[in-house]
Amino acid sequence: MLHLDGETLAYGKTVVLSDVDFHLRPGERVVLLGRSGSGKSTLLNAAYARLVTQMPGNVALVPQENGLVPQLSVFHNTYMGRLDQHSAAYNLLNLIWPLASQRNRVDQVLQDVGLAGMARKPVVSLSGGQKQRTALARAIHRGGHILIGDEPVSAVDERHAAQLIQTLADRFETMLLALHDIALTRQIATRIVGIKNGRLIIDRPAAEVSDDALDALYHR
Known about the structure:
This protein has about 220 residues and is α/β, with parallel strands linked by helices. The protein is globular, with a radius of gyration of 18 Å. It starts with a strand and ends with a helix. It has helices spanning about 40-55, 75-80, 90-95, 100-110, 130-140, 160-170, 180-190, 210-215; strands at about 1-10, 15-25, 30-35, 60, 145-150, 175-180, 190-195, 200-205. The protein has a six-stranded mixed sheet, sandwiched between helices. The chain has a two-stranded antiparallel ribbon with strand order 1-2. The protein has eight helices and eight strands; from the N terminus they run E-E-E-H-E-H-H-H-H-E-H-E-H-E-E-H. It has two domains: about 1-60 and about 145-220, P-loop containing nucleotide triphosphate hydrolases (Rossmann fold, 3-Layer(aba) Sandwich), CATH 3.40.50; about 70-145, no CATH class. Keywords: ATP-binding, Nucleotide-binding. This is ATP-binding cassette domain-containing protein. InterPro entries: AAA+_ATPase, ABC_transporter-like_ATP-bd, ABC_transpr_LolD-like, P-loop_NTPase.
């Protein structure tokens, strides 16, 4: 599905990761771990760019900053997950006067992420956790088999984060996520990739990665 072989990945002109050998197979749930600034987002962005080119329409994204339009409603931001799947005229109609079928579809997704009854609220009025749930709703509404997520549940509490991650796992066959929570990683990951000092130093099945090895990622 995705292969990076000995590649150098940069942010602008700054090299972030070197000699990257990374693959993503169908059905895997891969979690990237490492200190802030270690290169998790850089690897996610590279993976997303490749996958969306190779498999257009089959990849959903939850970016770190949510990527929402604050002035628009929760409904509109969620609906926008499928803009490229409809004609311009159909999209314009639903952005001005949503069809019942689209309202019902979005309402179901919002219920799944804990935003029932909030479809008409402008995103600018939401809390940080609600904004993140809206970004998750947009990704779920988009659908496809693959989810790329950059800290997709960082703004919600531990219990709800676990529920939302499971909701995502139930909807997407393959996931590539950057997380900061070890317990959450243990819950969901089939494979763990650890990043430190500009390199991928761990890349093994989750069951084979010790807590000591994970702890070492966060200490110099």
